[in-house]
Specification:
188 residues; alpha+beta; four-stranded mixed beta sheet; 6 helices; 21% strand; binds zinc ion
């Protein structure tokens, strides 16, 4: 029973062909079943495995814990989502500069919608509820606020770095650590 419940929770870390995670925010993980299928179809290389074996009629397989794509996957754009806006802004209200949990944050149109402001990377910022109410439908200057930095569309790399700073390494399987925190092993 313990064996089965452990198995259902197992996830596989997915790396790009350059051995970097496919994404950091959120971290690229697949259900192990999908990873095993990709290994059998020769789409990914299995780098590490859990200490658990799965048996079919004729073969047995170790459950993959880390796999890497065989073909490099190029990411050109970051999707414009609420989570990615928070991530770009490091979960800090862009007016008061304080950190908040995602559930305590909202977003603000720098140029208010009623004045033609659009929902785009360069007009949306992470904002705490208090500052969102304070600003209401006014411009930044009218509300007596200042922006920490001008909002811009982040590159995939910038967003990866932001997600990496936020990730909690304690909750990650030991076989993932070498691939996620390669530099950590160089620390004294
Ligand atoms: Zn605030």
């Amino acid at each position: 029973m313990t064996h089965l419940s452990r198995l259902s929770e197992m996830k596989t870390l997915v790396l790009n062909a350059d051995m970097q995670p496919l994404s950091w925010g959120p971290l690229s993980v697949w259900p192990w079943q999908d990873a095993l299928v990709a290994v059998l179809q020769d789409r990914v290389q299995q780098l590490c495995a859990y200490d658990v074996e799965i048996h079919s009629a004729s073969r047995s397989f170790r459950v993959p814990s880390v796999v890497a794509l065989k073909r490099f996957h190029l990411r050109r754009k970051v999707s414009f989502t609420r989570y990615n806006v928070f991530l770009r802004d490091s979960f800090r209200c862009q007016y008061c500069g304080k950190h908040f949990e995602a559930r305590e944050l909202t977003f603000d149109h720098v140029i208010p919608r009623c004045r033609g402001g659009r929902s785009t990377w360069d007009n949306i910022v992470t904002c705490c509820t208090a500052d969102n109410l304070r600003k209401a439908a006014r411009s930044v200057r009218e509300a007596g606020l200042t922006l920490l930095r001008p909002p811009l569309e982040p590159s995939p790399h910038l967003l990866d770095m932001a997600a990496r700073r936020l990730s909690h390494r304690d909750s990650l399987h030991e076989t993932w650590q070498d691939y996620l925190y390669w530099d950590a092993s160089l620390e004294p």
